């Protein structure tokens, strides 16, 4: 009988694909005839017995894949997958296992009966190992061996976290109670330090007690909501901490909000009052007539002018300096009560107020503490805004819950990042991905490697700059994490694996029930089987990341938003069995064989061009690198009479430093044809969120229209270069005179 070996030849651009795998049905519906022909794979069949070679052109539709196995994890490969019916194979394997198990039981029983346990016990162990090899395969043992240290380390951290949570839950402890324990332990230790302030635990506690006394005397009580709009400073923490002693929920307002977004954030949380810093007096003044909330202006000095209807909070604080303890006639907050609202960035619409309870705050801060092996003696540096989870909970929680010192900065400075770390003797520093890119773009200084940082932690450090960052700044360890403020699908990279945002155990995946399920990359809607249930993705297959919801469990509960209708949209029901629920992250992730997870894109951000799916996050990373780490946002735009969306990159380059000829050459080397931006827009100003994310909604609406855009626009020519996009060119593109 002849034996044949099939070799799949893939073009170089397929091997560097950044696309996100679509379900086959979607791919078939969207592929045009021309793109199908262009993406055909040539199968060369070689007859091992010596017959002539035969070339067969096979359409990807006729196979079980589109010709590219997607994924950004390590070990991701491009491969063709034939669709076979697994049912007969599964039944045969099950029958073989049953027969083998039955035989093993008989043999072990006979050995034990005739020769005793000295022969029976080894035989039993051999039988167990044999059955495991048959059911799980030798590969499972290999993966288990190389990931066991990672998994055991994470399991031990998770056990310590659950024990801490259970202990505080039984005692009905609030965040202010936990903070009070640290005040008692080391009252004169520095809690928070900044460019202009340094407060001990005692000073922070006394300030919080005065806040509690004032608002208690003004009639506010447990369950009321008060908004706080203040820059990074020690008083920010003292104010919400003091309000929490009364059981008041603090809505942490993004200081970048203006007009409609600001009014929405205050009204959606049903705030009875707004505390704001004097730097935001004009902002509040412009919308005061649209709000019913009582105003408290916090000035930098006492007896300074405030808005007519506002209370002078700084002066009120000065008149209550005699207060050192919290009011005695208050209703103590419970462990599971709401503590604060933290708002989403609002990159795709109005901000949503995510609920953070006392137990949730504990879970987030303590979770990262144990997962990354933080120590109470560590000194943390965070230039992130305190109104977000990363800076306000993950870093600040180390001071409030574990008695560490946290250094903050009013506003992030790329050039001052490591000089601050040296100045405050920090051992752990926090980042988000865009910050890391800004820091890497700064000129070398004496502080680059003279710090004491033993670890940086954060999210969004892109694989493209990861190694360069840690090498230049001599960073021993990176703790990359992934999670949403409101979500329960939170993961952590605890072993320094480059590019990974976390992992799921391949040995015991049930311990932390998170999964990647097949979903439509445009809508994020789960793709279900004939039984109505969701389908898990395999290794190197992209899908939506979810976390199982278990009510009453702080690590698995989904508290949602202040707006219940918004919460409902983030929940999937009947996921793996009827009646279960899961939180939909809205992010596309992929996992490799070892369980490491890698970020692909946001659902809805991926667009389709030339029959291929393009990941905006991957293209953004490459474009930013080629543009010397400049702010970049990539999105798809519609060209009339053309299928799919063409890629467009908006680059913040007010000085126009990007060399277009070199940029085009670099793009040709770094990205496949379909992923290269067809249009470029050079921004002269940008609109960033508090976590340094570019807002792309308005950019996408404006498209490549020079009639509404004042920035410089360019289009990609058939020769591969970029030329100015004029109004005449715009009309020719829309009329089909210029094709892409």
TrEMBL record:
<keyword id="KW-0276">Fatty acid metabolism</keyword>
<dbReference type="InterPro" id="IPR045851">
    <property type="entry name" value="AMP-bd_C_sf"/>
</dbReference>
<keyword id="KW-0547">Nucleotide-binding</keyword>
<keyword id="KW-0812">Transmembrane</keyword>
<dbReference type="InterPro" id="IPR020845">
    <property type="entry name" value="AMP-binding_CS"/>
</dbReference>
<feature type="compositionally biased region" description="Basic and acidic residues">
    <location>
        <begin position="28"/>
        <end position="39"/>
    </location>
</feature>
<dbReference type="InterPro" id="IPR000873">
    <property type="entry name" value="AMP-dep_synth/lig_dom"/>
</dbReference>
<keyword id="KW-0443">Lipid metabolism</keyword>
<dbReference type="GO" id="GO:0000166">
    <property type="term" value="F:nucleotide binding"/>
</dbReference>
<dbReference type="GO" id="GO:0005324">
    <property type="term" value="F:long-chain fatty acid transmembrane transporter activity"/>
</dbReference>
<keyword id="KW-1133">Transmembrane helix</keyword>
<feature type="region of interest" description="Disordered">
    <location>
        <begin position="28"/>
        <end position="86"/>
    </location>
</feature>
<dbReference type="InterPro" id="IPR042099">
    <property type="entry name" value="ANL_N_sf"/>
</dbReference>
<feature type="compositionally biased region" description="Low complexity">
    <location>
        <begin position="62"/>
        <end position="80"/>
    </location>
</feature>
<keyword id="KW-0436">Ligase</keyword>
<comment type="similarity">
    <text>Belongs to the ATP-dependent AMP-binding enzyme family.</text>
</comment>
<feature type="transmembrane region" description="Helical">
    <location>
        <begin position="94"/>
        <end position="115"/>
    </location>
</feature>
<dbReference type="GO" id="GO:0005886">
    <property type="term" value="C:plasma membrane"/>
</dbReference>
<dbReference type="GO" id="GO:0044539">
    <property type="term" value="P:long-chain fatty acid import into cell"/>
</dbReference>
<feature type="domain" description="AMP-dependent synthetase/ligase">
    <location>
        <begin position="179"/>
        <end position="527"/>
    </location>
</feature>
<dbReference type="GO" id="GO:0005789">
    <property type="term" value="C:endoplasmic reticulum membrane"/>
</dbReference>
<protein>
    <recommendedName>
        <fullName>long-chain-fatty-acid--CoA ligase</fullName>
        <ecNumber>6.2.1.3</ecNumber>
    </recommendedName>
</protein>
<dbReference type="Pfam" id="PF00501">
    <property type="entry name" value="AMP-binding"/>
</dbReference>
<dbReference type="GO" id="GO:0004467">
    <property type="term" value="F:long-chain fatty acid-CoA ligase activity"/>
</dbReference>
<keyword id="KW-0472">Membrane</keyword>
<feature type="transmembrane region" description="Helical">
    <location>
        <begin position="121"/>
        <end position="142"/>
    </location>
</feature>
<keyword id="KW-1003">Cell membrane</keyword>
<keyword id="KW-0813">Transport</keyword>
């Amino acid at each position: 009988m002849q034996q044949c070996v099939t070799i799949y030849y893939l073009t170089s651009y397929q091997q560097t694909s950044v696309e996100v795998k679509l379900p086959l049905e979607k791919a078939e519906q969207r592929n045009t005839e021309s793109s199908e022909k262009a993406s055909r794979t040539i199968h060369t069949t070689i007859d091992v017995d010596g017959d002539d070679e035969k070339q067969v052109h096979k359409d990807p539709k006729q196979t079980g894949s589109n010709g590219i196995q997607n994924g950004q994890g390590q070990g991701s490969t491009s491969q063709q997958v034939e669709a076979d019916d697994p049912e007969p194979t599964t039944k045969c394997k099950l029958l073989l296992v049953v027969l083998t198990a039955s035989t093993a039981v008989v043999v072990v029983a006979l050995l034990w009966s005739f020769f005793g346990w000295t022969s029976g016990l080894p035989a039993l162990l051999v039988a167990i190992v044999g059955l495991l090899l048959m059911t799980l395969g030798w590969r499972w043992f290999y993966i288990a061996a190389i990931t066991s240290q990672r998994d055991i380390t994470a399991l031990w951290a998770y056990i310590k976290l659950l024990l801490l949570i259970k202990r505080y839950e039984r005692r009905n402890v609030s965040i202010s109670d936990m903070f009070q324990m640290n005040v008692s332990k080391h009252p004169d230790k520095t809690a928070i330090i900044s460019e202009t302030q340094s407060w001990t635990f005692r000073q922070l506690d006394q300030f919080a007690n005065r806040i509690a006394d004032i608002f208690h005397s003004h009639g506010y009580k447990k369950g009321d909501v008060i908004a706080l709009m203040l820059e990074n400073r020690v008083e920010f923490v003292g104010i919400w901490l003091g309000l929490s002693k009364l059981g008041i929920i603090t809505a942490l307002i993004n200081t970048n909000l203006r007009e409609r977004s600001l009014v929405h954030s205050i009204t959606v949380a049903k705030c009875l009052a707004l505390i704001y810093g004097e730097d935001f007096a004009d902002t509040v003044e412009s919308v005061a007539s649209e709000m019913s909330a009582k105003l408290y202006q916090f000035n930098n000095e006492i007896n300074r002018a405030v808005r007519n209807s506002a209370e002078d909070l700084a002066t009120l604080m000065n008149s209550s300096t005699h207060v050192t303890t919290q009011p005695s006639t208050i209703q103590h907050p419970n462990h599971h009560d709401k503590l604060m609202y933290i708002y989403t960035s609002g990159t795709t619409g109005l901000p949503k107020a995510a609920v953070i309870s006392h137990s949730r705050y504990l879970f987030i801060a303590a979770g990262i503490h144990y997962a990354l092996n933080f120590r109470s003696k560590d000194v943390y540096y965070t230039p992130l805004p305190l109104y977000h989870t990363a800076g306000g909970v993950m870093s600040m929680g180390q001071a409030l819950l574990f008695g560490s010192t946290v250094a903050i900065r009013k506003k992030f400075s790329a050039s001052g990042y490591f000089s601050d770390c040296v100045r405050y003797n920090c051992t752990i520093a926090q980042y988000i991905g865009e910050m890391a890119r800004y820091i890497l773009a700064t000129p070398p200084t004496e502080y680059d490697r003279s710090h004491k940082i033993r670890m940086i932690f954060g999210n969004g450090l892109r694989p493209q700059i990861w190694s360069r960052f840690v090498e230049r700044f001599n960073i021993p360890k990176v703790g990359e994490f992934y999670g949403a403020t409101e979500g329960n699908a939170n993961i952590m990279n605890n072993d320094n694996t480059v590019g990974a945002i976390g992992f799921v155990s391949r040995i015991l995946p049930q311990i932390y029930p998170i999964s990647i399920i097949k979903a439509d990359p445009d809508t994020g809607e789960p793709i279900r089987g004939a039984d109505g249930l969701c389908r898990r993705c395999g290794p190197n297959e992209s899908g939506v990341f979810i976390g199982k919801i278990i009510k009453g469990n702080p690590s698995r509960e989904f508290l949602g938003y202040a707006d219940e209708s918004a919460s409902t949209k983030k929940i999937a029901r009947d996921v793996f069995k009827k009646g279960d629920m899961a939180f939909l992250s809205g992010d596309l992730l992929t996992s490799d064989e070892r369980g490491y997870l890698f970020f692909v894109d946001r659902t809805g951000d991926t667009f389709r061009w030339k029959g291929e799916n393009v990941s905006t996050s991957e293209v953004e990373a490459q474009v930013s690198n080629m543009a010397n780490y400049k702010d970049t946002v990539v999105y798809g735009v519609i060209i009339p009479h053309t299928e799919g969306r063409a890629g467009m990159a908006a680059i913040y380059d007010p000085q126009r430093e990007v060399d277009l000829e070199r940029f085009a050459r670099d793009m040709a080397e770094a990205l496949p044809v379909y992923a290269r931006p067809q249009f470029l827009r050079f921004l002269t100003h940008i609109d960033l969120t508090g976590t340094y994310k570019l807002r792309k909604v308005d950019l996408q609406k404006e498209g490549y229209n020079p009639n509404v855009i004042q920035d410089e626009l360019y289009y990609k020519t058939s020769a591969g270069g970029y030329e100015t996009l004029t109004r005449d060119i715009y009309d020719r593109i829309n009329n089909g005179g210029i094709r892409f």
